[in-house]
Amino acid sequence: MPAYRKIDRKSRYTPPSRGRRARHAALAIGAAVISSGMTTGLEAGAGASAPKAPVVSSKTFYACIEGGQIIGVEAMPFSPQFCASDSGQVLTQITGPQGFQGAQGTQGSQGVQGTQGSQGFQGNQGFQGNQGFQGSQGGQGTQGSQGFQGNQGFQGAAGAQGNQGVRGFQGAASATFKSDMTGRANGFSVPAMRSEIGASSGISSAGPSLQTLSPAVALMPANFSASVTTAAPAGGLQVGLATGEGIQLISCTIASGATTCSAPGELATIPASSAFEFFIINQDSTATWSGDALFGYQLSG
């Protein structure tokens, strides 16, 4: 217990009124609570928000007591005339070091079970599921009965008259004689879009001057056929007989990739006592063709 403070009786200190005494008492209690770290029942009650931690003061507070009531609370240094206006006023220390924490109380009994809540709202409808797998094919149905025969349709309009056909080859003239002719021309090397010649019969080598002479009677070539030892190029090969002036007498075309061709009738008659020859024309636009040629035909007069 601290020593009492000496009271100066000559000072003019006016004692507080009853209302001020009540307020000072509340302040004293609040100061004691703050100093000790205790909480009041109001602060410990459940509220809308979490309670704030109290502000702890490090000062020592003193209460002025008169007639068993606290009429003022201050910390040193005191204000003038504090607790020094009456001989019945007593000054005492009301805060001190914080005591040890008390033992934890026993756990309270379990509360009464609450009433069951109302049923919740029905949830939204779920999404549509994936399409199922296709079912197996059903069995074949029974065959239906045959339908009735339909009525006969109307006769269609007559078609337009067709174009006149191409003129056929002229038949071979009646001949007093017929001769079979054969030949082979070797060593052709014909540039693109050019021609080379060989003898019209027998075995010869390709060259520029290999014409043979016809007899003193007009002759008609027919049934011409030819074969080459190397397949025809992209544009094909035209082969046949021609006069010395280059007039074709009979010819055929060996298609690209093929090796043979034939022509049944003549294009022109070989004049009597005139030169004629075997020829090959390379109809490809870029490549040179090389090879040998075999041929045969008939002459009648």
Properties at a glance:
single chain; 301 residues; mainly beta; five-stranded mixed beta sheet; disordered N terminus
Number of helices: 2
Strand content: 25-35%
User: How many strands?
Assistant: 13
| Largest sheet features | 5 strands, mixed
Q: Flag low-confidence runs.
A: 1-13, 33-46
Distance between the termini: 172 Å
Q: Helical proportion? A: under 10%
Order of helices and strands: HHEEEEEEEEEEEEE
Which structural class do you get from the secondary structure elements? mainly beta
Could you explain the architecture of this structure?
With 301 residues, the chain is mainly beta. The protein has two helices and 13 strands. A five-stranded mixed β-sheet has the order 6-4-13-8-11, with no helix packed on it. Strands 5, 7, 9, 10 and 12 form a five-stranded antiparallel β-sheet that branches. Strands 2-1-3 form a three-stranded antiparallel β-sheet. Strand 9 (237-243) and strand 10 form a beta hairpin. The longest helix is centred in the N-terminal third of the chain and has 19 residues, at 18-36.
Characterize this entry briefly.
The protein has 2 helices and 13 strands, in the order H-H-E-E-E-E-E-E-E-E-E-E-E-E-E. The chain has 301 residues and is mostly beta strands. The strands form 3 sheets. The protein has a 5-stranded mixed beta sheet, with no helix packed on it.
